């Protein structure tokens, strides 16, 4: 089965939650990118 690839820009709470829900569906390959080396920090 070929998984649809989803790219999420931003590893804040919104991006991580989206990745969580997409991965739970089992139909998607998720990649997350962030401009900061330490996402989640202010
Ligand atoms: C000083 C401060 C204190 C806070 N304290 C609290 C608290 O105590 N409790 C609480 O519940 N909330 C707090 N908040 C609010 C909380 O941080 C936000 O509600 C929450 O982070 C929003 O999540 P988000 O995923 O929408 O955005 P963000 O957390 O901003 O995540 C967005 C991510 O996208 C990345 N990004 C943006 N543009 C690009 C780009 N062009 N390319 C790649 N990456 C990119 C950023 O680096 C960031 O990691 C605080 C906010 C601030 C500013």
From TrEMBL:
Pfam families (UniProt xref): NAD_binding_8 (PF13450)
GO molecular function: kynurenine 3-monooxygenase activity
UniProt GO BP: kynurenine metabolic process
Keyword Flavoprotein: yes
Cofactor field: FAD
Keyword Oxidoreductase: yes
Transmembrane spans: 6-23
Entry protein name: Flavoprotein involved in K+ transport
Native organism: Dactylococcopsis salina (strain PCC 8305) (Myxobactron salinum)
